Amino acid sequence: MNLEAAKLVFYEESYELLAAMEAALLAVENAAGPERGEHLNAMFRAAHTIKGSAGLFGLNDIVAFTHLCESVLDKAREGELAITTPLIELLFTCRDHIGSMVDAVRCGVEAPDSGALGTQLKSYLVDSAPVVPTPAAAAMVVKQEQTGPRVEVESGGDHVVSSDHWHISLRFGVDVLRNGMDPISFIRYLASLGRIVYLTTLYDGLPNPEEMDPESCYLGFEIEFQAAPNVDKLTIENVFEFIRDDSKVRILPPHAHIAEYIRLIKDMPEGMSRLGEILVRGGALTPMELDEVLGIQRENAGAGEHRPLGTLLVEERLAPPQAVAAALDKQREHAAQKTREHRVVRVDATRLDALIDLVGELVISGAAAQLSASRSGDSALIETIASLGELVERIRDEALSLRMVPVGEIFSRFPRVVRDASRELGKDIQLELAGEETELDKSMVDKLADPLVHLVRNAIDHGIEGSDARRNLGKADYGTVWLNAYHESGSVVIEVGDDGGGMDRQRIRNRAVERGLIQADEVLNDQQVLQLVFEPGFSTAETVTNLSGRGVGMDVVKRNIEALKGNIEIDSVAGEGTIVRLRVPLTLAIIDGFRVGVGQVSFVIPLDMVLECLDLPTDRGSSQQHYLNLRGEVLPYLPLRELFEVDAPAPARQSVVVVQYGSQRAGLVVDNLEGELQAVIKPLGQLFRGVRGLAGSTILGSGAVALILDVPDLINRAAKNERRKVALIAAREARHPAMREEDRP
Amino acid sequence: MAISSIYHHERCILRIDGSLTIYEAGEAKRRLMDELNLAREVEVDLAGVAELDTAGIQLLLMLKREAARQEKPLFFHGHSKAVLAVVDLYNMAGVFGDPVVLAGGAG
Question: Which PANTHER family does the record cross-reference, listed alphabetically (chain B) (predicted)?
Fold first, then answer.
């Protein structure tokens, strides 16, 4: 991996960590007690990790700034700093600042200045002791101060606080004497590593003279031991190395060491998953002790009783409970890390696209193979190709789903957006999220984020009334804004709703007339009036706020959505609220299609949009009217033959394919129905860019090209044509037929 | 190792000379138990002990405990340097009684 590639990982990781930090910040506001500590820890870890990674790339600005954040967070974590609203505000700003610094590095521009924020952060640190580089180093300094003078005091024979001694329990095996080893020599050797403060010889094990074997050892010892500097648990244990096998040796560290173990365990790098390993690495347990307790665990398991290692360690007094608890925490942390690692594999998007392209080719070749197989009439071949086809289909689905990400990825940024906006406007807003697991194409996610932020801000600014107004209307004091996502006939729908005042049609109309967007006497249906807010330069807000109402934005939102081949729908009830519905296609690469023919030409309709097929009635009256009566509803239809000027005589029987997009329906008249197929969408050449009604092309198994129909556009056109004609006829017949497209939920 | 016993009536003075270690432990145990069973009161003179190990001190412990069980007075005295070193290390001066101090002062 070269440096640039590694940097990409750094950016991604930083954004993830910043997101985690933001989530923790939001949570810490509402949390208390240990939960709060957990969130502070999460923030600290995020800052710490970013600092570490930035250091690898020599990004000194980021290192310096995150170091300050980390120090403040550390103080907060230790409880030396109260979590106040100004502090949280500051941390939010710092989080954003780190984000913009990372962005700056990414774009190769100069990093924004951290001076002012740095000063603010430092003001929280003033009370702290002389600045030490890291908390770890601080601990070391303190430790030396404590142990230094105490050693001298002890050599003077003064009273010694027992908690600073190691406690060693020895129960010698019966055979040690016979094996030529004498406890005396071990204790003498131990004494050479420090000072035996107190020793108690236990001889309760000595049996009656008749039973006593004079060559056996029956003694045990409890020793308070003052270790010389640099003598750790392992060194002490090594004293008893030769008798470990048949003797019981328990070495308990001084209390001061327990804190040290906990610190070591907490500071350990990730990568260890086993409790024993963590404790051994932290120095709280020696490898021998681990082997021993694992042996006990095995014996217990053999006896049909499973006991966790941690419990055994504490029971056997091999490790202090506090250290075991810290190690267990570490283990959990690691497990969490691990599941995340397992869940996510970073893949370059271009490689994914290349894979999907190849799968597309595979689908086409598969169709060709299927065609030749069925022509050959070789049943074995047909069967093989059929199962191959099934696999190809599954590969296609899998490959496409690789690009799919849950929409929650966008939603997760909204708690912050709503929080900031509601603070700024002094409105009490509650955010509800639903359908976060709904998946859509990764490229869509990136492009939907900004329009959604805009819509949410708009809802908060214009939609939700002030709390006084709300109280007068008998609504809850806090406004609710919700985001909801779901799948609907091959599209993903994302709703942004609020329970505010709804849209005032009259005001929208007046403003549109005022701005010259429509004529004063122009007849518009409800949806058309509402859609006026998406016109460039439209704004009904009485005052322009910081958030929205500058008249730019809504038109940009609409443009962005249309660029994704999506559309926007507004539902608004005065006094009750507004729902803005964004509808975008699920994917842009491969679709399940329905193939139809007109003359020699094949067309493909996205299968998700096909509702039903029926015969075109022969007694449909005037050929001027392009609409049918479908079970009592008016269904406008478009003859594809006329639309695409196919030069072939119409057969006696024609079919209608009823398609739906959003809440609108239309029929497409074709010669014959040719069945389902998988269509790899190939973009149309430059020449056909301007052609309306076509979404792309695909290659059929036979090698022939089929055109993919742009159903939303066709439905629109059918509706428009018919409306015009119907209006004409209606005027003539003084009759008002119901129009389907106005019949909204 | 040599264990000699001198009886004054039923009071026995046991004198241990040389080393009292695991190598002599089997024989020493028999000797010591025999003498304890015969005597009513025992005085153990440790002045001649040139070497003492854990097996040895276990024997002395056993002797003392058994004497207590049989309700026979038993004293140690004349602790040699070798004995004192082990008793000190094992912090058993209390167990072997204050004669340590007396004997130490006398010898």
Answer: BLR2341 PROTEIN
